Amino acid sequence: MPERPADGTDTTTATGARAVPCRVVVCRDCCCGTVKVDGDHAAQTARLRQIAPVRISECLDVCEQANVIVVQPSTAGRAAGARPVWLGLVNDPDATEDIADWVRAGGPGVAARPDILDLYLIKPPRRAPAGS
Question: pTM, whole model, 2 decimals?
C-alpha cells in the first residue's frame, strides 16, 4: 500500500499508481545561483523546498536568463497534457513567492498559471541531436 503524506492526502492515481507531485528544478551552476546574479539563492531554494520537491541542476544552458527555474507537472498535470514550464530571470523574492503559490495550487495542468509569471516564461534550450 502506498504511503500517504503527513497531511493524509491520497497519493495514488485511479489506476493505483503512485501520484507524483509537482516538482521544481533550480539551476545552480555557472551563472544561476552565483554572485554573478543578485539575490539570496539559498533562501529561494529553501522557500521552494517548503512547497515541493526541489532538484538542484547544473547548468541548464540558458545563462542569459539566470536564475532559471523549471516547474515540472504532477502526475495529474501530465495526464492533463501539461509540459514543464521554464522560467527565467527569477531574481527576487516576489517572483519566487508567485512560483511557490502556483506550485502549491497544483502547478502546470492543474492550476492556471498566474499572469505575472508570463513575464518570466522562457523557451528551453535546444539540444543538439546525439552524434552531431
Answer: 0.82
